[in-house]
Amino acid sequence: MWIKAYAKVNLGLAVTNKRADGFHDIDTIFALIDLYDSLRLEPFPSNKIYLSVGVANLPKDQDNLVYKAAQRYLEAAQEERGVTIELEKNIPISAGLGGGSSDAAAVLQAMSEIYPSNVDLYKIALELGSDVPFFLSGLKAAHGQARGEVLEGLQLKTQNLLLVNPNIAVSAKDAYQNLAKLDNSLNVNKIIKELNTGKKPRYFNSLQAGVLRLEPKLAEVLAVLDKYLDGVLMSGSGSTCFGLGSV
Fold it and tell me: Residue 44: which domain range?
């Protein structure tokens, strides 16, 4: 079984609260883009997981979300058989595009088809990562709240988008540790109206200032994009930046 795991951008990201459990509450607009990883999953007769990855620096064990998603599903389903997984990476790693989360969601969905069971996929998804429920939802665009798992689908006009990944890896942990301040929620209705009518969207990313202090070169990327495109922003925890329109 071959499946595609699409990347996302955050069309605005407000970090609104530091929670008692150590996570943060956010207010964001998730939007899928047409960049994707490919995964092939096949059932295996014994209770083992074999993961092959075409990227040298990616782990092939429990430290990989793909492996972990398959493992958690098999455990929850009390399934004694296993799976082989082949992962072809196209989405940059630690780039703010949700590649690992999307891969994990795709694996959960595929595992539920290979080994059907009454497993709560969304419970596993949230345990794997805050973005995973969005990718599992099947929504193309959504308003995300709480950790990102409280979702409301949005009608968003197709946008031309230019991505620039400067080949700088930024972990979500580092991005949140360097958060400058908490922000108020996004005006989601206004942002969607601006996007759907071709106006310059007035959104922001609470994590951007802190990541720019960590990686000053990103400021140069944003400045160049801002000369030619509207709605220039860093996606998620970075380091990928984007602008709306075409050059």
Answer: 2-150
